[in-house]
Specification:
Structural class: alpha+beta
Strand content: 35-45%
Shape: globular
CATH topology: Aminopeptidase
Number of strands: 6
Number of helices: 3
Largest sheet: 6 strands, mixed
Radius of gyration: 14 Å
CATH superfamily: Gcn5-related N-acetyltransferase (GNAT)
Length: 139
């Protein structure tokens, strides 16, 4: 997993807010993600399949699996946990964005039932303003 310059502060905030989830293998952190109700402001520009208020959906951020654990289905388990968490919290959907061209992530989400919504230029500190593909799953 690569952590950019901007990520440590984002991770610190996620930890403090109780929004960072980890997947472990033995005593090692094998995967991590942030799950909350915060999204890039440009999400409002997309035409989502489900018209929702921000309080009605959760967003998956920064899902990553350590290279030592790649190919073991940990990302899929993390997303399944996010889906369960959203359902348990009474959410109506999960939304996320994927850097355009990240084929493994696209296949992961589509394989779990997420629907491609749109491609937008989003700004993040570690990527600048580039194309991201938006996905949604009704829960």
């Amino acid at each position: 997993m690569i952590i950019s310059k901007a990520a440590p502060e984002e991770l610190k905030s996620a930890i403090e807010a109780g929004e960072l989830y980890t997947g472990r293998s033995g005593d090692r952190i094998a995967a991590a993600m942030v799950l909350n109700q915060k999204c890039n402001p440009e999400y409002d520009e997309a035409v989502w399949p489900t018209e929702l208020n921000h309080k009605d959906f959760m967003v998956i951020h920064m899902l990553g699996v350590h290279g030592d654990f790649a190919g073991q289905g940990l990302a899929k388990e993390m997303v399944r946990f996010a889906i369960w968490t959203a359902k348990t919290a009474g959410m109506k959907a999960i939304r996320l964005d994927v850097l355009k061209g990240n084929v493994p992530a696209e296949k992961l989400y589509e394989g779990l039932g997420f629907i491609y919504v749109d491609t937008l230029k989003l700004f993040y500190e570690d990527t600048g303003r580039v194309d991201f593909e938006l996905y949604e799953l009704g829960v």
